[in-house]
């Protein structure tokens, strides 16, 4: 808890810390050899109303460009996942851009930017996206709340009747319903029925958010793009039996390799923190034959990091350049992980 408040304070103070040059000093000790950045979606700002929480999954095309230029100006090599192991042994500073899940906007908005700068990047695909079985309920809940001025949900274990006229009430409703879905008191099947009553076809809408197999094939055929695996259905691996965890990891690799006719040596753990990934899962990923696997544990890459649990740095709409600089310095990772280091 103390770490949480320290980190919050460090975020607030990031412009001051950067102004004092603290980041450059810390980078010398904790900056590591390079960084793997984690993104999810690239979405233009169309000025329509949004639910604030989703900003943590998104970045605008302009901001993505700004971050690429930031690294180019600082003489970083922007490299692909295939080059990480070699670069970790070298002395040249490097950065890898990775996108999780396989959102369609990665093709529409991220891809043209990486083409423009001739920079490599990676997308970790959760197979349920192109297979059309994903339920992006967090975006459907947002659409529902933005459309409706009153929400009425009643199940055996969850009851919600609320006016959702104002932005603030929509935000509160979002967090209450999200919590009910996450803790199981509002089953997804029931939420799907509620959406259907409002004329929202969750399967069709979810598909609009996802890359199709054809689109993934197009991306995969470009030498700038690395496709990685991210399990079949994006469930927290730690909660699964040995057999189910194996099926989720191996199944995603096998299906990607079959459809894309390419070896898939890179993996990202769903959710990726110590709460959702266990030591068993790290062993499974190595046994199955992945050459690298990334977590969402915050950190920079050092020479001796285990390649089956590489830390990353989250970048989203809320990441200012001063916060990014402090993340690269290693301070926030130290506050997050303490002396545990980056291991799961
Ligand atoms: Zn994911």
Mean of residue pLDDT values:
92
> Based on CA inertia axes, which overall geometry fits?
globular
Can you write the helix and strand succession as a string? HHHEEEHEHEHEHEEHHHHEHEHEEHH
Task: Spell out the CATH superfamily of the largest domain.
Answer: Glycoside hydrolase/deacetylase
Instruction: Supply the number of helical segments.
Output: 15
How many beta-strand elements?
A: 12
Query: What top-tier CATH class of the largest domain fits best?
Result: Alpha Beta
In percent, how much strand structure appears in the residues?
Answer: 15-25%
Our count of domains comes out at 2
> The biggest beta sheet, please?
8 strands, parallel
Protein described:
The protein is α/β, with parallel strands linked by helices and 344 residues long. It folds into 2 domains: 262 residues, TIM Barrel (Alpha-Beta Barrel); 69 residues, no CATH class. It contains 15 helices and 12 strands. α4 runs parallel beside α6. The longest helix is centred in the C-terminal third of the chain and has 19 residues. The radius of gyration is 20 Å and the shape is globular. The protein starts with a helix and ends in a 7-residue tail after the last helix. The mean pLDDT is 92. The chain binds zinc ion. Zinc ion binds next to β5.
Write a brief caption for the model.
The protein has helices at 2-12, 14-19, 22-30, 61-73, 84-89, 105-117, 137-147, 167-182, 188-197, 202-209, 213-220, 242-260, 279-288, 321-329, 331-337; strands at 34-39, 41-42, 58-59, 77-78, 94-101, 121-125, 150-154, 159-163, 225-229, 266-268, 292-298, 310-314. The chain is α/β, with parallel strands linked by helices.
